[in-house]
Write a sequence for this structure.
């Protein structure tokens, strides 16, 4: 069962890496992009659950909690795509590697256990890598800031999702989170679009095509796979595995958009530090698992 969970998680991570490519292909403003993504995803999940007769009404308190976590998911995606729009895929995904650092801080605080200083150290290595990239690409500072905010938010919702899966199925949690995120984005529409105006509001034909791919494969399928995997593995291991998301996404960006032609040595120095942090984190996690 553990092997199946890891396979599910790695498929989810690959699909997550591809979302960055779609963020570049979809020319909508980042908030509209996420709003349509969550709308299509919510409708798709609702149809699936309706025909499978699995739609369940949850208690009010749990519903509010899931809606709140859905808002965190929505803002994570919003920051993620804003990072791509205001820098590029490679820089945005590299910033996402800070997730491990934030998880090492937030998971112990939320779960009320001792902070693992070794995990914090590995996370700081990743932060140092991001700083190197920032130093070489100061014109991407807004995109980098959004990227770091995205990684912070990404560290939070897997921690809470693990507990929620004890109270509801993965598909039900995903549906409620999409609805919660959709409501949160709708509420901030006027404020966000005033700060970051959109050129147009209705998706083009190509936008619709990529939005469907994004919603059906990279969201519905990926989200359910990740939530199912979380039943067997820890939030830290999940976020640790998601450090491979930048690797998949950056390689795809190199192949599809040839971003490697526009990156200097500073990017690779920073990426090297982050890769070192990931390898050390994985080794540390494997060592802890052997001790249990």
């Amino acid at each position: 069962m553990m092997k199946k969970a890891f396979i599910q998680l790695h498929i989810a991570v690959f699909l997550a890496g591809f979302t960055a490519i779609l963020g570049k292909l979809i020319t909508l403003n980042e908030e509209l992009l996420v709003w349509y993504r969550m709308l299509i995803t919510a409708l798709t999940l609702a149809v699936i659950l309706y025909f499978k007769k699995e739609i369940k009404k949850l208690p009010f308190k749990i519903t509010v909690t899931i809606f709140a976590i859905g808002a965190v998911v929505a803002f994570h995606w919003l920051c993620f795509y804003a990072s791509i729009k205001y820098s590029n895929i490679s820089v945005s995904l590299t910033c996402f590697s800070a997730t491990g650092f934030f998880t090492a801080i937030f998971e112990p605080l939320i779960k009320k256990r001792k902070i693992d200083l070794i995990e914090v150290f590995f996370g700081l290595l990743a932060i140092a890598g991001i700083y190197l990239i920032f130093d070489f690409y100061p014109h991407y500072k807004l995109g980098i800031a959004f990227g770091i905010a995205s990684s912070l938010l990404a560290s939070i919702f897997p921690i809470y999702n693990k507990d929620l899966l004890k109270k509801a199925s993965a598909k039900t949690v995903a549906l409620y989170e999409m609805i919660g995120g959709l409501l949160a984005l709708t509420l901030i529409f006027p404020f966000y679009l005033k700060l970051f105006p959109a050129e147009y509001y209705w998706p083009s034909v190509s936008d619709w095509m990529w939005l469907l791919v994004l919603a059906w494969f990279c969201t519905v399928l990926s989200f359910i796979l990740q939530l199912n995997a979380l039943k067997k593995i820890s939030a830290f291991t999940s976020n640790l595995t998601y450090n491979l998301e930048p690797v998949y996404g950056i390689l795809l960006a190199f192949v599809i958009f040839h971003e490697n032609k526009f990156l200097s040595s500073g990017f690779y120095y920073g990426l090297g530090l982050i890769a070192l942090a990931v390898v050390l984190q994985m080794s540390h996690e494997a060592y802890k698992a052997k001790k249990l």
